Amino acid sequence: MVILYFITFLPFVLAGSNCTLPNFSVGDFNITSEQHFKDTMKQEEIFLLGISAKWCTHCCQIEPIYAEVFEALEKLTPKIKFVRIDMSKHNFIKKHIPGTDQLPLLYVIKKGKFYRHEDLMKVENIVSFLDKIYMPVSTINSEDELEAFFEAPRENKNFLRVLGIFYENDDSEDSPLKEYEKTAISLANWIGSKMGILTNKTLIKELKAKGSDVVRCYNCLALKKKDANIKILDLEISQNIKEWITTAGVGIVEELTGYNFQVYKEIALPMLVMFLDKHNVNQDYYINILTKVARDFDEGIKFVWMDGTDPMIKQRKKKLGLVTEILPSMAFNVLDDRILPYKEGQPITESSIRLFVSDFIENRLASKNIADIRPNPELESKYSDTPIVTMDEFEEKVLSEGTDVLLLLYSSYQNEDSLNLAPYFNKVAKRFKELNYPHVKVYRMDTATQTVHKNVKIDHVPIIYLFPAYHKNPPYVQYTNEAKVPPMMFFVEKYVDIKFQLPELPHLSPDQIGPYWEQKAQLSPEKQERVAAHNERRNWDL
Ligand SMILES: *[C@@H]1O[C@H](CO)[C@@H](O)[C@H](O)[C@H]1NC(C)=O
Ligand SMILES: *[C@@H]1O[C@H](CO)[C@@H](O)[C@H](O)[C@H]1NC(C)=O
Ligand SMILES: *[C@@H]1O[C@H](CO)[C@@H](O)[C@H](O)[C@H]1NC(C)=O
Ligand SMILES: *[C@@H]1O[C@H](CO)[C@@H](O)[C@H](O)[C@H]1NC(C)=O
């Protein structure tokens, strides 16, 4: 079965294609026929195979990287060949490989077996992959080698080391040792990881006697991530080697990147992906609540986050059914073709994430169709008195000092509440314009189409903030009272830096004020009370 997530990192496609001519000049030689390919497989114990095609526009962009790889291979002893196939000429290769619709493809072929490299971004990753297929586990033979093996370079945050300690040096096909070696090969795309093996009985005994923190038992695995304690799997208790390594190797909630994607693919569980703005001041808060939920569900689901402001990631986010610019947002990345987004603009809290996950587990989520964002004429007409502010204008209109700004963040995409708020908010905008206080501005911003500024928290829409004229740093004052015109207006009056006083009945135009008092006078005392409570100045808890 081919496992397919909507979010994958395979293959890496360079953005901004400017290159249409295929250029397959890099390599040792081109394959000219199927027989030629078979002969090559016999002759070369291990080689690199780059598959491209005339019709593949991304293929020539990868050639400069190949050129560097080729150069690096030249320096190896024994030299490893870089063989090329043009798939538009030699279709037979399709028989050997799945998923040939996505080119370019890069394989290491060892003893006739294909190992696909999944991240074409960096030369050193390709070379390290080749290295790992060539020698999946490195043998540790002294205490110094052990120390060097576990030493983390400062800049490598993807650092991961696994050491297999096998006192019983059993070489049979189904032994833990063989299983361990197979796991090492299957995780070769896990960039930053290295797997080692320690079988020297004398050394194992010595280290154990010394109280080494790595060699704590005779047959076990030791795993170390950067800045974390060593984890141990005692093989006498459990032999789920691959499962243990993949699970222990990823954190409860990690950023999903090309570096660890391979591991999540091996784990092959549904993932809940949260998209965040990496620069937003609230991002840690969201990772924290996601982590809290993840702790309770970590058995059957993996929890990851991604930077939703990255253009490449935005495209992937869309495939999961998240079409607006609203961040954070979340969706499941599953192994079948269901599209399961969390409704965009709905509040994201610890309990709402928990509910979303439970709904997923209990099969209560229905797969969605991906719809495009379309202009919403009904909404536009209802908000016609509220000027729009865009991301580009945000600093100038909202964050520059000297103007008190009331801002509504809403979504024009499938968000009933944004529509329902329109009559009230639009009235607020209209009245402030008519009352003409020079330092007060009322704006709206459509989060379906606009990225929100990094200082602004939107865990749901619609949301209303006041940005006081001389306090433009977060947190901003949020309006949380009823969706009614008078309290919204008095809220502005209360929190602005440049003070003014609203008239009584600020929401009414001058010609409505007289009739208001007249009509009110004709009501029963209780009704008068109620009408006053809705309209007249009082101590709202704003
Ligand atoms: C494409 O090529 C043109 C002309 O050489 C150049 O001006 C432009 O910046 C290139 N675009 C990209 C995306 O590389
Ligand atoms: C093809 O690649 C070679 C070597 O990298 C380079 O010199 C040449 O200009 C490329 N040709 C085209 C058409 O891109
Ligand atoms: C492979 O074929 C292409 C086009 O047919 C040619 O330009 C290129 O030099 C060849 N590469 C090698 C390594 O022989
Ligand atoms: C095994 O370890 C011992 C003790 O450290 C060492 O003296 C010996 O050379 C090692 N054996 C091999 C084959 O490397």
From TrEMBL:
Residues of the Thioredoxin domain: 15-155
EC numbers, comma separated: 5.3.4.1
Chief location bin: endoplasmic reticulum
Subcellular location: Endoplasmic reticulum lumen
Top EC group: isomerase
InterPro entries: Thioredoxin-like_sf (IPR036249), Thioredoxin_CS (IPR017937), Thioredoxin_domain (IPR013766)
Signal peptide as annotated in the record: 1-15
GO MF annotation list: protein disulfide isomerase activity
Source domain of life: Eukaryota
Keyword terms, alphabetized: Endoplasmic reticulum, Isomerase, Redox-active center, Signal
Recorded catalytic activity of this chain's protein: Catalyzes the rearrangement of -S-S- bonds in proteins
GO biological processes: protein folding; response to endoplasmic reticulum stress
A GO CC term assigned to this protein in UniProt: endoplasmic reticulum lumen
Annotated family: Belongs to the protein disulfide isomerase family.
Protein name according to UniProt: protein disulfide-isomerase
Lineage of origin: Eukaryota, Sar, Alveolata, Ciliophora, Postciliodesmatophora
